[in-house]
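Homework-ish question, so no full write-ups if that breaks the rules, but can someone show me the predicted structure for this set?
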Amino acid sequence: MRSLDSGLLYASNWDPSQSVLVNIGNHFDLKTSVFQAPRRGIYSFSFHVVKVYNRQTIQVNLMQNDYPVISAFAGDQDVTREAASNGVLLMVEREDRVYLKLERGTLMGGWKYSTFSGFLVFPL
Amino acid sequence: MRSLDSGLLYASNWDPSQSVLVNIGNHFDLKTSVFQAPRRGIYSFSFHVVKVYNRQTIQVNLMQNDYPVISAFAGDQDVTREAASNGVLLMVEREDRVYLKLERGTLMGGWKYSTFSGFLVFPL
Amino acid sequence: MRSLDSGLLYASNWDPSQSVLVNIGNHFDLKTSVFQAPRRGIYSFSFHVVKVYNRQTIQVNLMQNDYPVISAFAGDQDVTREAASNGVLLMVEREDRVYLKLERGTLMGGWKYSTFSGFLVFPL
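A: Not a homework solution, just the prediction itself:
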């Protein structure tokens, strides 16, 4: 069984009062939306960033410290809501910062229903 | 190591005879497609609901008991198959029910290749 | 805590020198892109195969040995990058081979930003 300081995070905004559903250990900073790892290990991260209708393509990067690890895209111009999704296993050092960055485009139309999740798969 | 009553679930219909690939503990009810948690803990859930060509937008909700937790959308009118996907970490109480609900649109054209998966990340 | 031979894999090509970020135990063969399970258990696999603009629909299968388990599709003709994504929990026997197969279409325009990840949820 994994310990409770595993570094769980989750963000959504279905309902602002529920915008973070799970945050065991409080390693996900609600103000900055940055996750800071409580320990070294392999983590699983996944995200679904939903853009509302606009004519721009978005590119979302998953960042580890200042380095972009993976990207996802949403570029259809004819649909109301579309998600830029991806997921990854990462080797994370203690105190590494993991977060999402909007590399291209805007979310001016809103990003309701977006999620960002992660958990420790096992410590190293 | 996590115990085998962790509450695994998975549904697809690549092949009807294989429509549930993994169901450790049988906490996923094949008739109702509802997962009932065998214990309190943090669970990871993800889904990919594939709609076949039709002119409707679908919205799929992940439900915890009677509450919608996250949503996903598929609304492109010009593609044959498109997935409404999302994923989440959830704090689940023992006997909570977790399931998918088609909030908007229809899957009349079919939903082959759809998946719904979950597992206990750690017990609380 | 799970042991380090859990069978982790991850592939991306954000940067060719970083094309495999995590490969604990080296069960993911970099030449063939095949994962061979080090032990029997329940594994979680997910993939996001990103196609670059072309006019073809792609179908990507997740294969267990010679059997297709799940599929994902990307078929929009008007967007620059689009992902065929899906994920699954699988009962895997020791030495089973798990890999992606492009069942339909081509990735001639490139597949940069694609990912394929998996980890042992628990051994059986």
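Now go work out the reasoning yourself. Hint: Chain C has one domain: 11-15+28-119.
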